[in-house]
Structures are given as structure tokens and as C-alpha cells.
Amino acid sequence: MMPGLDGFEVCQAIRSHSDLREMPVVMLTALADRASRLKGIESGADDFISKPFDFQELRARVGCILRLNRYRKLMQQQARFQWLVEGSEHPTLLVDSLLEVTYSNAAAKRLLTNTDLPGGHRNSLVGLLRTNFTLEPVQAWENWIARPEKGPEEPLLMARRGAGQGIRHWYRFAVQADQSLRGETERAVHLVDITHQMAENISRWSFERIISHKLRTPLTGLLGCMELLSDDYCAKATTEDAALWRSMQLSGQRLADAVANVLRYVEVSTTKAVDGSFVISRFAHLVGRCAESVQIRQVQVEIAPELQAGALHVSETALNLIIGELCANAAKFHPERNPTVQISVRPQGSAGMARIEFMDDGVHLAPEELSNIWRPYFQVERHLTGEVPGVGLGLPLLAAYALQFGGAYEIHNRIDRPGLVISCTLPWSPSHGPN
Known about the structure:
Number of strands: 15
Helix content: 40-55%
Radius of gyration: 33 Å
Number of domains: 4
CATH topology of the largest domain: Heat Shock Protein 90
Number of helices: 13
CATH superfamily of the largest domain: Histidine kinase-like ATPase, C-terminal domain
Structural class: alpha+beta
Largest sheet: 7 strands, mixed
Oligomer: single chain
């Protein structure tokens, strides 16, 4: 009964306003006839209370409306979520704290068999995936299944062959954890199709392998012949011609080393790891040999007492390459080419893993360099010195070896001073096998 704009029109204006339309509205008025009540509800009011009113009743009605409003919003959100997820082409599942599947969208049902069990029973997520896929890498999956609350520490992949097809289909397992209102952990699981990416990688690896072999054979012959002729030629040549010959030899050797690195990376990335065992008590000797080869004089090695009698589950060739690459990088990037290196080997968690931590006192890397450092053919020296003597496969090779043997890797800048901390996690056991 307000002049100019009455309460019914105010309610209609609220309902037509994009920012206010969800707000609960209670009409409190002296009008008590049936027509006024109907008009108030039609205007968009959630409740209509006539004066005089009882304070306790008003409070109870407001509380009830707020609860209903919250419920309505939840239902709208759920309907929006279901509409979004059901229409998605990406297979998505929801799982509870016991890793039992509570929901699977249409794409997941098309991809997976036996998603719906009779009698309201729930599928085990792990059982469902194992029924439909080969899970790789095995150790990474076992680590996540044992402690799903931590989240995957490295990429989890799933592979299978299509019906009647020779092509292998690959999916990446992505999981998001969320704490529900009831205090229970729910997870959204996405199965991301990466078949195209894997096919591109395999094609690239195949190309690199063919090219590498085609290059390595003639290079070996060329360098061998140059070495045999070197002494005789340089003894008769002028000083300028001898210097030119040495430069040719050096360039040829750099090319051969680059080809060897590419071939080694391709082999590690595309084949299964060769079983091996390295006695940890010999680790300091291996480090000393690698450091000496790049003229690093200051090296400290610390091995946890409980690891001294054990063995790393990695071949000596792979470990020698890993430590050798880290030492070479430490020497290459130190401002004075005279780094101090600290290496420690300690147990990592309780799952039979050992963490090799390599720390130098060289330089810090920018965030974009840290994020790209494991990418094949990315060269930090291009940004630091402008020189590009290698091919950018040293640290990617370390990462490939770590993954091959069921481990992990990471890098970050030192906090206390310039330098890097690079770690490589590998499996170990208390009793060692053959060296």
C-alpha cells in the first residue's frame, strides 16, 4: 500500500534484477485477504505474513525459507554439474574415500565395461581400471593406490588395444580431491585421451633412432680414419693446416657425442629398463670418478648409515651417466668453473626408495628455465652464455632413467646461496645383489 511503488512492484523489480533475483523475499503486510496473498506469491515472494505478526513465527518462517533456498541452490548446482559432465566427451568418474565409484558420466560408460553393477553395488575404481587397461608405470600406480590421499607423484598412464585393432590407446589418469560438507573425501577422476600425443612421441623416437644410427656409423669410421692419419699428417703439415685438422677432429667428435646422446635418450625412452643393482658402499668411488673427469676438486658425499649395506636398483651404467651429467653441468655453469658439490643419499619415505640429492654452488635458474629444464633439447646455456655445445638431453636423460627404474626427479634453486638442488629418487633394498 506504499505510494508510487507498492510492495508487489518492489518484489517484481527484485526478481527481474540479475544480482538480486535469487534473494529470498518475505512480504510483511497489513493486507490479509486471499487475493492479496495470491498477488504476493505471483510477484515472486517466498512467503506472505499478515500483520499483526508473531515474532517467533516470523523467525521460524525466515529460517525455513533460508533452508529451502539453500536446498534449491544446491539442486540447481547439481543439475548444472550433471548437465555439464554428462555432455562432456571426457570420461569422468566420482569416487568416495574408499575409492569406490559413485558416479560415471556417459563418456566413461562408453569407454569402460562393467561400470554399473546390479543391486546398487559399487565398483572399485582400481578394479575397474585394471579390468579395462594396463596400468603403467606399475610402481607409480602401486605407490598411489597405497596412499591415494597424497595424490600421484608422477604421471599415471593407462594403455589398451581397441577391439580388433593393433593400435594402442593411451589415457592419462588425472584426479582431483575435494572435502565434502560431511567431512568425507570425494575425488573426481578424469581419463584424458593422449593417444595422439603418444603416437607423435613414438614417431619422433623412431625417426630419431633411424637418423641416429645412420649418422653414427659413418661418423665412427670418419673419426677413426682421422685419428689414424692424425700423427702422420700433422707432422708434415704446416702449423695452420695442423690446427685446421685438429679443429676438424674436434668438430667431428662433438657431432659424434651429440648423436650418441640422442641415440641413448631414444633407447632409454622407448625400451624397458635393464635390471641392475649397484652396491651403495661403492657410491662415493663412482662420484669421485665422475667429478675427476670434469676436474671438480671439492666434493662431499654423505650416505645415511642404514643405506651403507644396501643396493640401489639401477644399473651402474645408468647411475654413472646420471652422476656424470650432474657433475658436468655443475662445472659448466659455475661462474669460475670451480664448483663445490655436495651429494647425499638418504631413505625416501617408507616404500623402499632412496633419494640422491645433488647440490652445487653455481647459479640460480629463472622460473621458466626450471619449468622447462626436463624438456628434451631445451638448453639452459643458450640463455646463460649464448653457447650451445650440447643438445639439451642431459637432464631429460636423467629423468628418463629415473622413470625407467620406477623413481622420480625434481629440481629447485638453493635457498641459502646461488646454486641448484637436483634430486633423483630410485628404489633400493637392504641386501645387495650382484654388482
